[in-house]
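Worked example (supplementary).
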Amino acid sequence: GDSVTQMEGPVTLSEEAFLTINCTYTATGYPSLFWYVQYPGEGLQLLLKATKADDKGSNKGFEATYRKETTSFHLEKGSVQVSDSAVYFCALHLGGAQKLVFGQGTRLTINP
Amino acid sequence: DTEVTQTPKHLVMGMTNKKSLKCEQHMGHRAMYWYKQKAKKPPELMFVYSYEKLSINESVPSRFSPECPNSSLLNLHLHALQPEDSALYLCASSWIWTGRSYEQYFGPGTRLTVT
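After joint prediction of all chains, the assembly is encoded as:
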C-alpha cells in the first residue's frame, strides 16, 4: 500500500543551522507530495507542495524537491530560527483517492 | 480566505454527556474531513464528506456521528465517549478530486478530554 517514511526525531539544532528532514514514499501511482507543519497547540498548516516529478515547493525559506527516481521529498532550510520549532509531517495524496497518507512526523527543536 | 474554523477550542465532557464539535469553511470546498490526532502521532482519518454526502467512514465507533448540514458546515456529534477518545479533533477541507490532488486546509482543532 501507499506509505510515507520520515526520519525519526526528535531533531535538535542550533539557530542558523542547516536543516534536512528526510522523507521517502511508496505509491502505486503518481502522488502529489506535501509538507505540513504543526506548531504546539495548533492544527496543521500546509508548508509547501509539489504535484509532479522535479517540481520544487518552497515557502518561508523551506524547500523540497519531488524526486521520482529516489521516491523522496526531503525538506531543507538553509538557516533555521527558534520559531521553526514544530512537528513536521510529510504526506502524499493520489488523485482520485480521498486520503492523505501521513508520515509519522518529525519533532524539530531549535535552540537559541 | 483560506481559513477553517472550529469550535469549541477545548471541551471537557463526561462519559454520559452528549456534545458536538463544529467546523466551518468558506472557501467553496466540497470535500470536508474529520481527523483524530493523539499526542505525538499523525492525524488519523475518521470521516470524509464529498458534496455533503458521507463518502468514507474509517470504521469509526458509532459513538461518533458526523453530519454535514451544508457545503460550509461540518459537525461531529459525540455521545457516550470513553477516556481513550481524548484527543485533538481536526477538521479539514479541500477542493474535490477529479483525478487531481488538492491540498487539505486544516482548522486549529478541538482539544477533547473525556473524564
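Two points are worth noting when inspecting this output. The longest strand of chain B covers residues 18-25. Chain B has a mean pLDDT of 92.
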